[in-house]
Amino acid sequence: MRGKEVNKKDKDKVFSKPIEKKFEFDQAVASVFDDMLSRSVPFYDEVRKLIIDLILAEQEEGKKILDLGFSTAKFLLDLHSKMDARMELKGLDNSPAMLERAEQKCQAFGADISLELADMLTYDFKQEDIIVANYTLQFIRPMQRMELVRKIHDGLKEDGVFIFSEKVVFEDKKLDKQMIDIYYAYKKEQGYSEYEIAQKREALENVLIPFTVEENIHMCKEAGFRQINTIFQWANFVTFVAKK
């Protein structure tokens, strides 16, 4: 029963009133983040399941999985509940509010998951098998993003895999505008008002900085990854798999 209570999603109303600051992963966001993701990111649940299935296809004892920006640990908890082999699951996040909520959930479900409050830009990656970053890199400043992806590459074992999802932009400005309009229509269908959509867009200005698909692939190649593929795309949301 306790697990159900912790897993219950509070409704996202963060941007229903005037914003006073730029977007950040504070207590207000952490408390509604699961609802925010499911209503703001198209096919988020399906993408999470796709990545988990990809990991489970080659699961084995002792395999090390690291989630960058674990937020409320939903991805790690889902993976933990479905794996048969005893893999080592760990998450990094730099938000104390997210860490607190994630620890509560892991404790409630009795999940053996290691969570650490850390800055991924300075973290010492230690020969991971798989590193996952779902909608995380886009919040890293572009000049630092390349260096982080290089660190991720170097922190993977040989034949290691980096799986990441990102919001993207398009070189074709007309197409980019069309995709944004389609995305905002999607958010309205999820119950967000035009005011909330505008408020969040303003809060994310210069905080979430997306690359094109080509820029993300180029970044991975420059970091040393030998093969990069896209395994999912809906409008301006894409999931990549980069192999060392």
Spans of 5+ residues with little confidence (pLDDT < 50)?
1-9, 12-19, 21-26
Query: Radius of gyration over alpha carbons?
Result: 18 Å
CATH H level, superfamily name: Vaccinia Virus protein VP39
CATH architecture: 3-Layer(aba) Sandwich
Number of domains: 1
User: What's the total helix number?
Assistant: 10
| Euclidean distance between termini CA atoms | 42 Å
Strand count: 7
- The secondary-structure class comes to alpha/beta
Strand arrangement, major sheet: 3-2-1-4-5-7-6
Mean pLDDT: 86
From the 3D structure, determine the CATH topology: Rossmann fold
SSE pattern: HHHHEHEHEEHEHHHEE
Residue share in helices? 40-55%
State which percent range the strand residues make up.
15-25%
> How does the major sheet shape up?
7 strands, mixed
Report the CATH C-level class: Alpha Beta
What best-fitting shape do the alpha-carbon axes yield? globular
